[in-house]
Amino acid sequence: MDTVSIVQPSWRKDIVLIIVLALAALILPFSFDETMWLPQGYRLFAPALIAVAIGAILARTPFPLWFSMIFGSILGLEYSINWVADVMPRAEIIWRDLQVLFPWLKALLLGQWPEPITPFSGSLQHVARALEDMWERLVDWWAVLQLGQSSLDTTALKLGAVFLVWFCALWAALYLIKARKPIIALLPIGISTIINAAYTGLGSVFVYIFFALFLVAMFWNRIITLESRWNARGLDVALSVRERSVNSSVTIIVLLLGISLLMPVATWHRAVDYFWNHYGDTFESFYDNLDRAFAGRNPLPTVVATGPEGLGSHSVYSAPVFQNDRMLLVRTSDPIPHVDEEELAYEESLQDYVIGQLPKRYWRERTYDIYTGRGWDTSEVVTELWGADDTWVEIDYPTEIVTQTYTLLAYSSEYGLGVNAMASVDEPYTVLLRDEGDMAAYSIEATRYTVTSLVATPAREDLIAAEEDYPDWITAQYLQLPEELPERVIERAQEIVDHAGATTRYEKARAIEAYLRQYQYNLDVEPVPYGEDLVDYFLFETQEGFCDYSASAMVVMLRAVGVAARYVSGYNQGQFDVLRGAWLVMDYNAHAWPEVYFPGIGWVEFEPTPSQNVFDRSSEEAEETEDIEVLPLPLSTPIEPDQDVTLPQLWWLIIPILGTGLFLLMRPKGDERVRFVSPEVEVTSIYRKMVRLSRWIGFGPVSSETPREFVASLGPALERRARFAKGSANDVNTIGQAYEMAAYEKDPPTNLTARIAREAYTRLRMVLVRMLFQRKKQEAVRKS
Question: Rounded CA gap, 743 and 735, in Å?
């Protein structure tokens, strides 16, 4: 049987573990993102991967585990602070400091003795301001909690989340690579992932992914541990042993994963229910305190009711991912245009022709009234049960009656759909009301139902004339804005209406609508950063986004200029199926838009998203087009001298430099260092290092001594020199015997011999270095 000595560099064996570590560390950020309580949780992948890299470097240093953990945690705390407070000066600030420093240094070198300056004053001021601002926010947050109130500030939450991800990844790297304990290593990540999934009811797929990675880490660590033991004993092992070990491990992993997937979920649910039924009251106050401390987070999906009890909130943290699913079919009472049978080949122009001939309709699902800075929420609602065909509201203004029959395909929401002001449904339904006549949504269980809507049909002249005072409930709920709204949003809204010369509510709505339609539609826009206001970020930073951005911006800007508006979600009209005579609504037709309230008329839709056509409000008597003076978009937001710049942070440069410095300053131990040399060469190198250090302390060999004579005299001399050198003679003899074998004997030393000599030199080196420092100290005393 052919055999091969399995002596592989340790870094090669650790590559698999490092890959497993990186994947396991990414589980937390993406499980947070799946459960949505932490906005943009997936962005924490950066600290997770950086912590794995730092931990892998520290794991291969001679420092003890506890020191590596403390040092890595300090780095994680610094990274978390910079992540949240943006402490690190950015490129433009540093460049401005260098522009001041270089001329000063030049003048100094030329002997001109310039006036003293503070080097990097701008960078230092930036760091001081950022730290001071973060500290004040944390102090205010703590003061609010001490008063028993709820805090919307998310600074502490962000700090905790970033540091948690960093710490779990660092812990895993150190305990897996340095301590070789996979169970302890991956335990924090596993516990955090399981708690996140169990408490929210989402993200269970990440639990299974973690389980798979955990098994891979255990089996691979076992394989490389056995190989290390074989190599240390100088054993030659058949090459097929590793292959069989890997195959067996993969088979066991697949079987265990299959069993876990096939196990009934009810068992898990019963265990969770038992725990909360018996011990839930104990944790109630604890969770209440958490909710108060971190009230600014997104609500947990399990906390917000999805049925008639409440609408929940709508946070805009990332673009939706659309599928090609057919959601529903809608047949309406609107007239269907006549299309020649020869045109049914669906030419490209046919869809545009049909849509142009039919009224523009949006299928409304929910409405929101409270802007949170991150998205939308709804005021407290009450529910009213209504029977089939019961009319719950009447509209005085002249309307047209529009019936819609909805056939649900992939649509699974509990909320019903309707055009504008829904009046009745042919199935029992539940209305969610904020106030009398103010419907937030309605719930229905049928999969096919017909809705009757009373749709106001005002012309432009009617909307311009609707300038009566708002009812009290409109003023109370649909003009409110958060106190934290950036002032420049309000200023920009006023600037738009002033530029257009708009004085009426309708003119202001059209001016802001036209302004927002200049922004680029983009589903791949970067998510809103932590701490940024959604509308402010859209208007002044990205200047591109999707319907949630533009609809939110129009509602907020209208409220800023005194026009009542609300945020609405549902679906746009979809595609007209000529053969079925119905609208086919796909998943990608999900849409959001603003509605503006006009006294005496009701809620009227507007369309600021440039990918959709605007609503036509012209009348037969007045067919002239509106002439709106649109304020142009600014090219960019200028950076004032005292403002923070917006270039990317320098962490992409600092982290590689820091990692390289750590690797060079804290070199790996000899027994863990990558070795590409034979045992014979390694033993010879160890002997020469011992001779060199011995010369430095005055115990070097004389010219007439053989290696055996030198070794016989060195050991006792070291033990006589100092008490801490006790036992050094054995280490010296071990190295000398290995060297004689390498230099003079026919059979070269084995891997085991080289390893024993290496361990002996590791102990001996500390003794020789300590003696060297003592000798230098004694010489300094004699000279003084």
Answer: 12
